[in-house]
Amino acid sequence: MDDAPRRARHSTGGILLLLVAAVAVVWVGFWIAPHVSRARIESWVQAAGVWGPLVLFAVQVLQIVVAPIPGALVPFLAGALYGPWVGTLVAAGGTAVGSVAAFSIGRYAGRPLATRWIGSETLDRAHAMIGGKRWLALVPLFLVPLSPSDALCIAAGLIGLEWRQLLIAVALGRLPKDAAIALAGAGLLRLGV
After folding, report:
1. From CA 148, how far away is CA 141, in angstroms rounded?
2. C-alpha 105: how far from its chain's center?
3. C-alpha to C-alpha distance for 183 and 40, rounded to whole angstroms
4. Rounded to whole angstroms, how far apart are CA atoms 111 and 106?
5. 170 and 102 Cβ atoms separated by less than 8 Å
6. Each residue of 107-166: pLDDT tens digit?
7. Is 70 helix (H, G, I), strand (E, B) or coil?
8. Global pTM value
């Protein structure tokens, strides 16, 4: 029995579902964007009082998973509002949790969908391309301030990178970058020229 028409129907349905999901994410991003500014985040955090660091931590996690605001904004605010120690811990902790959440989305939600669309052989080839120590290329990519670090975490989960490898790459790349940005926010480090 020929499964080609059924596969084509599933493939078309999957592509339409992805398109609808992408449009929904973009729409939500545009809807949220005017409400997410430095002043607004700062007022939310200050209004939270002693819970402020937790609010900023949650904003950092959501920024990674949903990404409607620039990635450097939250660590900078963390340093400016809470100083070098607490600010750095809030920024780094939110980055670590958000990176793991993005990786999990790629691994547990994205991989099954991608397997249906492009096949497990293609995903296995992509995984083989980063086999050995090639996954370490994530570290310098995470260190670059405007790199798509959030998407890289999702892609790492999608292609089956090991948890340990992701955690090492995040610890060596994303956390130092966010710590430096938080220290700049606290006025202890000058970034740029």
Report:
1. 8
2. 10
3. 21
4. 6
5. no
6. 888 878 777 777 778 777 777 777 677 888 899 989 987 788 888 888 888 888 899 999
7. coil
8. 0.72
